[in-house]
Write a structure and sequence with these properties.
1 helix, MmpS family protein, MmpS_C, MmpS
Length: 136
């Protein structure tokens, strides 16, 4: 009985190896690609943040850069805009603005490749506003 078990196991292993060889399952793919260093970034996205107020003034701003890192701009003179270019396949664009004490209206926009993706405005004393595009 043990001899039969050894023969069946050996025969099964032989069949598996032959089937794998016939379909090229043991073939190795080349990892060296001559064109690997010549890759170019795909579809760069141009993202523009805008914050405006009809009476000018200043505002404190927080926005995400091309690497998704937050940046603070204190007392930014309005109108204010900033453009970034990213090749990341997915990114969120976000800007938050707090107007100064003398301001009664504030507007923000996020423009991606020339298309306005978020546009908000608010009328209140010391306005606070945000614009968000979840996926540019």
């Amino acid at each position: 009985m043990p001899l039969l078990l050894v023969v069946v196991t050996a025969l099964g292993a032989y069949v598996v190896v032959r089937v794998r060889d016939s379909f090229g399952a043991n073939a190795y793919a080349s990892t060296a690609d001559a064109n690997a260093d010549e890759t170019k970034p795909f579809n760069p996205k141009h993202i523009t943040y805008e914050v405006t107020a009809p009476s000018g003034g200043t505002a404190s701003l927080n926005f995400l850069d091309e690497d998704g890192q937050p940046h603070l701009v204190e007392d930014a003179v309005l109108p204010w805009s900033h453009t970034i270019v990213t090749t990341l396949p997915s990114m969120s664009a976000n800007i938050v603005a707090q107007g100064d004490a003398g301001m009664g209206h504030l507007r923000c926009r996020v423009i991606v490749d020339g298309e306005v993706r978020d546009d908000r405005s608010i009328d209140q004393y010391e306005p606070f506003i945000y614009c968000l595009v979840k996926s540019v």
